[in-house]
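Now read this:
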Amino acid sequence: MTKKILAALLLTGSLMVAACNTVEGAGKDVQSAGKAVEDAAD
């Protein structure tokens, strides 16, 4: 039983870390696209 709980916690933690990296990467992409538009407008 404790092995199943530990496995579930590790899986959940891994997914949370992966999701944070994905959102951070998407935010950087949007930021760089916004900067490109801003530079083109100047």
